[in-house]
Amino acid sequence: MDLRLAPAAAAGETKYGNSRLVGQFVLSTDRSVSPAGWLSDHVGPWCLAHHPALPAIRLIDDDVRTIGWMLGYPIDEAGRLLDPGESLVVPAPALASPEAFETFVYSFGGRFAAALLDGQSPRFYVDPCGSLSAVYCAHRRIVASTSNLIPYDEHSRDRMELARAIGIPYTESMYPFTLTPRHGVDRILPNHYLDLRDWRTKRHWPKGPLVETHAVEEAVAEIASVVKRQIAGVVGAVPTYLPLTAGLDSRMLLACARGVADRVELFTRAIGDKNSTIDCDTARRIAKRFRLRYLVLPMQKATDDDLAEWMFQIAYSTSEIRGWQCATMYKRLPGGHAVLGGQAGEVARGYYWRDDDSETTVITPERLLDLCACPVEEETLAVTRAWLESVPAANALQVLDLFFVEQDMGGWAGVLPYAESSPGFPIFPLCHRRVVERMLTLPAPYRRSGRLSRDIVAREWPELLDWPINQPIGAMRLVLPAKRAIQKAKRALRRPRFALS
């Protein structure tokens, strides 16, 4: 199998077809782009088509008129995961202005996108992390989950040279900012909306530089409260899995799930490398101590078909090599469940800050492209410069923070769930506007210490800190070096399955 030059939707289209685009959607006034067999609904000239696995909740006004949709898995302020069959009333004050509607939309957490199609300002929004990712084609006036659902024409051909340079799926590269593997198809970044009148994306948050808080304990308490509320909402509605590792973010989620832990099933991927060995050992010890349900997903070599389908589901828009190579393993989980992910936890610890970075550090386009593992060329520089000129940051640290939220979350973490939406759906409990804002405004020294996840665990379930973070325990400290030596010898005798030329 050679996937090296398979760009965007061109790869696998005839083999997999739109019926396999689980959990995806397309919104357009052109009904011919709606895949056969999908569910559909209409508001005026607009047609929303969505795979049956993706909920589409009608937005209605006080006169019970449908004015749009909330797609995905929104969780309200009461901690309730909305039912797929219900309608959501948007109160009149929330329709008084775009800002009022945004306040309404971002009172919800979870994994969602929202389309408001009635009135003077039709718009499309993604959630605070872009975890239900969306792209659009301005000249065809289509919004979709991935470019697979946007027909090709002379203006939307593949970016072949850039695709070759980026090297997906064999690298961890990302297309920068609004770029996708297709010309004429752009990504909607978190904190931006798509204006459906002029088909341009515009920033709606933050309006200006964020102000650092000094009330750290209050911020930690509020973040923990929202995460607990969101986890309880998911667990109360659907069977739920939590991938537990030896790291802090998954342990933080488990701590916040303490009140419903008896209804959560933990699992760990046994990939066979050092990290997963430590993960499995630590998770097993935690589950045994607290009598929690736990399973190990045994290593299963991914089939060529599963690897190709995984990349097709996300239209070759990004890559995550470990997850990709677990494509067949994930299919062993039963259907109809949610998977809680710790994505966005890095926001609280200045993920892209260097030790010598300060508020006055100059952030160059080249540095950001390097973080994307993306080549520096005219097109990539142009979108990076445009983003830098528009970002409302007070200093360099805020620039890097918003880069992480809008690039890493919107252009990477928010895309991958489409590859992992069968047989269940991923959801990020940290995905809430208030959580993101609170994390971004924690004091810089506190964030450099990386303490937030640990402090939440200490607050909600301190006994979970009895085990070290990402470190072997007991006899494992002696076993691992021996296993690594054996694995190294085996690899030396084996031809690699994939090779870049």
Q: Roughly how many Å is the radius of gyration?
A: 22 Å
Helix content: 25-40%
| Straight-line distance between termini | 14 Å
Q: Main β-sheet, in a few words?
A: 7 strands, mixed
Globally, the shape reads globular
Look at the structure and give the mean pLDDT. 91
Strand order of the largest sheet: 6-4-5-7-8-12-13
Sheet-strand content, in percent, reads: 15-25%
Topology of this structure?
Layout lengths: L12 H4 L8 E4 L10 E5 L2 E5 L5 E5 L5 E10 L11 E3 L8 H8 L3 E8 L6 E4 L8 E3 L4 E3 L15 H7 L19 E2 L4 E4 L4 E4 L12 H20 L4 E4 L4 H9 L7 E6 L4 H17 L3 E4 L6 H10 L7 H4 L2 H4 L7 E3 L24 H7 L6 H13 L5 H18 L11 E3 L5 H8 L3 H6 L2 H9 L15 H18 L8
Parallel strand pairs: 4-6, 14-15, 14-17, 15-16, 17-18
Antiparallel strand pairs: 1-3, 1-10, 2-3, 4-5, 5-7, 7-8, 8-12, 9-10, 9-11, 12-13
